[in-house]
Amino acid sequence: MDLKKAVVFMLLSTLAFTAMNGLLKFLTTYSAYQMVFFRSLGSLFFTFGYLLSRGIPVLGTHRKLLVLRGLVGSTSMVLFFMALHYIPLGSAVGLRYIAPIFAAVFAILLLREKVKPIQWLFFGISFLGVLVLKGLDRNIPLIGLVLVLISSVFSGLVYIIIRRIGSREHPVVIVNYFMCIAAIIGGTGAIFDWKTPVGIDWLLLLSLGVFGYFGQLFMTKAFQMGETNVIAPLKYLEVFFAVLIGVVFLGEEYFIWSFVGMGMIIAGLLLNLWYKQRLLRKRLS
Fold first, then answer.
1. Which end of the chain is more exposed for a tag (fewer CB within 10 A), N or C?
2. Where in the sequence is the domain holding 147, given as residue range(s)?
């Protein structure tokens, strides 16, 4: 374990994802499908290069699960990119973090896992934060909320599929499948609403995949080097950075209820993380 390096990697990951999300919001003159296409294209350059240079089989072995992960993840991505056309960046990022609630529900239904009653209380706090955001923040229209919530449902399902795959596939193979399928879905959808990029927009659109790839890479390294209960909370700094980007560079406005709602969402998830780590320590002691 190297805690200092883990913290640095998680902060770099958070900044990379913030840069990607900021660009996504800035580029909303393009359709969600077109942004998905370029987001995937930029990452495929790195994933294919990594796999081929190390002689790792690109197709993997558990192909049905890999394709399913790609389809579910691509659906979540498209819906989230659509949501950014309607709601502020910080609110969208904060709302997407309720995905673990849906992951817990899927774990009960599909993996027969148990969730303690107090964990439902923590999830309830997060979900109440969603209601606060929608009911008291006039910057969030219903269509934007629905899109980001459905995106979170699919994101929660992704967690379950990845757990089913486990360590039987190389992580980059999983990401490569995801990016390949997302590129196909994004490219197909973009045909019907294509807008040819001009000038620097080419660089910005391709940068989506670069930031996304390194965000994922740094996050993986952080979790490999540090304890989850120390590293995972740093991920939620992404909401703070997203709000900062929105206010300073995108001219977005936030109200007190925006921060109350986002704070409740994060607080509920952090409490759940703390409780799960506490249970794990008890089992190991």
1. C
2. 3-284
Residue 116's pLDDT is 85
Give the contacts of 21 (CB within 8 A, at least 6 positions apart).
84, 89, 92, 93, 238, 242, 245
Residue 36 in this model has a pLDDT that exceeds 90: yes
Q: Tokens 């409780």 belong to which residue?
A: 275
What span, in angstroms and rounded, lies between the C-alpha atoms of 243 and 285?
40
Q: Which among 166, 181, 182, 179 has a CA at the least distance from the CA of 50? A: 179
> For the CA atoms of 29, 35, 41, 46, what is the dihedral angle to 10 degrees?
100
Q: Which amino acid is at 227?
A: E
CB-based contacts of 194: which residues, under 8 Å, 6+ apart? 31, 34
The stretch 246-262 carries a mean pLDDT of 89
Q: How confident is the model at residue 230 (pLDDT cuts 50, 70, 90)?
A: low
CA dist 90 and 252 (Å) reads 9
Distance CA(92)–CA(149), nearest Å, equals 9
**Are the CB atoms for 91 and 262 separated by under 8 Å?**
yes
Global pTM? 0.90
